[in-house]
Prior knowledge:
By secondary structure, this protein is α/β, with parallel strands linked by helices. It has helices spanning 7-14, 28-33, 69-76, 120-133, and strands spanning 20-24, 38-43, 55-58, 84-87, 112-115, 137-141, 146-150.
Amino acid sequence: xxxxxxxxxxxxxxxxxxxxxxxxxxxxxxxxxxxxxxxxxxxxxxxxxxxxxxxxxxxxxxxxxxxxxxxxxxxxxxxxxxxxxxxxxxxxxxxxxxxxxxxxxxxxxxxxxxxxxxxxxxxxxxxxxxxxxxxxxxxxxxxxxxxxxxx
Length: 151
Ligand SMILES: C[S@@+](CC[C@H](N)C(=O)[O-])C[C@H]1O[C@@H](n2cnc3c(N)ncnc32)[C@H](O)[C@@H]1O
């Protein structure tokens, strides 16, 4: 199977008709996407807010390790419709599992992409997400990790 540099280059090859993307977790990859897409990035660490041309939603994590739900819900109510969702945050450990308790905040009718599913905990989160949303999961290789598309 073809190896992609990262999921960022894969997106433009694989998906058509996408102009706005919402991502959990911003970083260097965000910079690859901003020339071609209107990006909204949920970011928990103030030092990474504003580093790219994305529209940042600064949402600190709470004691569960996931984004503060109250702040996130308020900020998400201010953004337009998005056609792709990327799960690449919060950073560390089991923190992304918190997504599964907050699915009502997001558009579940669109494609979702989970990065780093080579890590057992992130594969588990993506797999549980696919069961809860009845989406079909496909795993792809990038240079140094794997990502999953859920349709
Ligand atoms: C895996 S990164 C997100 C990456 C982003 N979606 C991308 O592809 O560039 C997850 C979190 O790590 C933190 N982060 C971002 N850039 C970083 C860097 N250069 N070094 C360490 N942590 C970083 C941020 O808090 C971010 O939300």
